[in-house]
Write a structure and sequence with these properties.
Largest sheet of chain A: 5 strands, mixed
CATH architecture of chain C: Up-down Bundle
Strand content of chain A: 5-15%
CATH class of chain C: Mainly Alpha
CATH topology of chain C: 3 helical TM bundles of succinate and fumarate reductases
Number of helices of chain A: 10
Number of helices of chain C: 4
Shape of chain A: elongated
Number of domains of chain C: 1
Helix content of chain C: over 70%
Number of domains of chain A: 2
Number of strands of chain A: 7
Helix content of chain A: 25-40%
Structural class of chain A: alpha+beta
Number of strands of chain C: 0
Strand content of chain C: under 5%
Distance between the termini of chain C: 43 Å
Structural class of chain C: mainly alpha
Strand order of the largest sheet of chain A: 2-1-5-3-4
Oligomer: heterotrimer
Distance between the termini of chain A: 73 Å
Shape of chain C: elongated
Largest sheet of chain C: none
Chain lengths: 242, 113, 110
């Protein structure tokens, strides 16, 4: 039941960050249509050279995030109906990341910061040791659990003005992962994590704007995790002083 | 300035905190200068204080009291968020900080007129 | 451009100032009625060790707090390099401290 006037007015970023521009496409509207459906329809029917990134289409892999009408979204799970303004969609590559071409961004800085924040496991046991028993009800485990559903989509990173204004800032996702690992009873190097998040791009630069929590597609709250890191770093500072 | 991703309460609370901090910082040296007139030229200080009786200046003073209050209470909210082990209801707390600041500056206004 | 050390200074000065600033507002609300005069202000503050300590500490804390706050705003707005930024922060802090202490002395010296 697609009629002529039910075409969507879609403006898609084409080209590089400096020299690119928005190009207009008409895309037939459909029921339960997602932003990724719209982008894919353009690529399959109008211009096969359109560069964009996706994999799972079901909100698991975290590779399809883009700016939609100025807001970062996971496009595979964002319904057109929810974000349509008038009859228009403006689709751009994720903010705060270098643009490779069209809608594809270079995610390297995002993952480099993930590593720089020590957001990885620091093992304490070998394969010969028994598996460590964890209490799922302990406060530390609960704090760790709060962040483990992160899919690395970089929506929070694109939403964050502190990242935009301070290129060194590690960003919400990397810091949330650092907080998660910090709270994991199996992790063996909490001082290294606090050290890594206390530099000039560290957690202390966060202004608690909360855009990360506002836009996280999995309803996580990196702002709270970063507050936890700040608290832990202050605590360890006074412990060292004694 | 207010782009789509910024139209939520906590971003606006951040902006108010930054704006009030900036204005207060720019106002402070002026404030200090006028106060130090008490030492050097008391008659000029009295002249200045008479100037502040003008309604426009009074309103500006109320504005400054509001900015100071909103920076205090907004700042207390941020420190509670960072140092107390809970984090829910941040939007309510931000709105409360704003409400208390309005109340404080209104009290100042009513005493001033 | 806030490392852990500057962050701690910013929060400690904020905690010091919270009661002082609230006290300052209370004084303002009390004193503003009927207008201000130099004589009225001086009669309250001159020779008072309490007001000297109150506003002296306030000025000290606000100099640190304001300098760090402006440093962050300057960095996030203009992206200044570290050396220049550090120099500027110290200068801003010194201006606050000097003009502020001069004002405190002006109203508390008898």
């Amino acid at each position: 039941m697609v009629t002529e006037k039910e075409n969507l007015d879609v403006f898609v970023w084409r080209g590089l960050a400096e020299t690119g521009r928005f190009e207009r496409y008409e895309v037939p509207a459909q029921d339960s249509q997602t932003i990724l459906d719209v982008v894919s329809w353009i690529q399959q029917n109008l211009d096969a050279t359109l560069a964009y990134r996706f994999a799972c289409r079901v909100g698991m892999c975290g590779s399809c995030a883009m700016m939609v009408n100025g807001e970062p979204r996971w496009t595979c799970r964002t319904h057109v109906r929810k974000v349509l303004r008038g009859n228009q969609l403006k689709i751009a590559p994720l903010r705060n990341l270098p643009v490779i071409r069209d809608l594809a961004t270079d995610m390297d800085p995002f993952f480099d910061k993930w590593v720089a924040a020590e957001g990885h496991h620091h093992p304490t046991r070998t394969r010969d040791d028994a598996i460590e028993a964890l209490d799922p009800q302990s406060p530390e485990r609960r704090a760790a659990n709060a962040g483990i559903e992160c899919i690395n989509c970089a929506v929070c990173y694109a939403a964050c003005d502190t990242v935009a204004n301070n290129p060194d800032f590690l960003g919400p996702a990397a810091l949330q992962r650092a907080w998660t690992v910090h709270n994991d009873a199996r992790d063996g190097d909490q001082p290294a994590i606090l050290e890594a998040v206390s530099g000039k791009g560290g957690c202390h630069n966060c202004h608690s704007q909360g855009s990360c929590a506002q836009y996280c597609p999995n309803d996580l709250n990196p702002m709270t995790a970063i507050a936890g890191l700040k608290r832990a770093s202050v605590k360890s500072f006074f412990k060292r002083e004694r | 300035m207010i782009r789509p991703h910024r139209t939520h309460p906590l971003w606006l609370a951040y902006f108010l905190h930054r704006l009030s901090g900036l204005v207060l910082a720019l106002f402070l040296p002026l404030h200090f200068y006028v106060i130090s007139l008490a030492l050097t030229q008391p008659e000029r200080l009295d002249g200045f204080l008479r100037w502040t009786e003008m309604p426009v200046v009074k309103l500006a003073e109320v504005g400054l009291v509001f900015l100071l209050a909103v920076h205090i209470f907004g700042g207390l909210r941020l420190m509670a968020l960072e140092f107390l082990p809970w984090s829910g209801r941040q939007k309510t707390l931000a709105a409360s900080a704003l409400a208390v600041s309005f109340f404080v500056s209104l009290t100042f206004f009513l005493r001033a007129v | 451009m806030l490392d852990a050390r500057l962050y701690m200074l910013q929060r400690i000065t904020a905690l010091i100032m919270a009661p002082l600033a609230l006290g300052h507002i209370a004084v303002m609300i009390y004193a503003i009625q009927g207008g201000l005069s130099a004589a009225e202000i001086l009669s309250r503050t001159q020779g008072s060790l309490f007001w000297f300590a109150f506003y002296g500490l306030f000025v000290l804390a606000v100099s640190v707090h304001g300098a760090i706050g402006l440093r962050v705003i300057i960095y996030e707005t203009f992206g200044m390099r570290a050396l220049l930024l550090n120099g500027l922060s110290w200068i801003i802090g010194a201006i606050f401290l000097l003009t502020g202490m001069r004002a405190v002395l002006a109203v508390t010296l008898s």
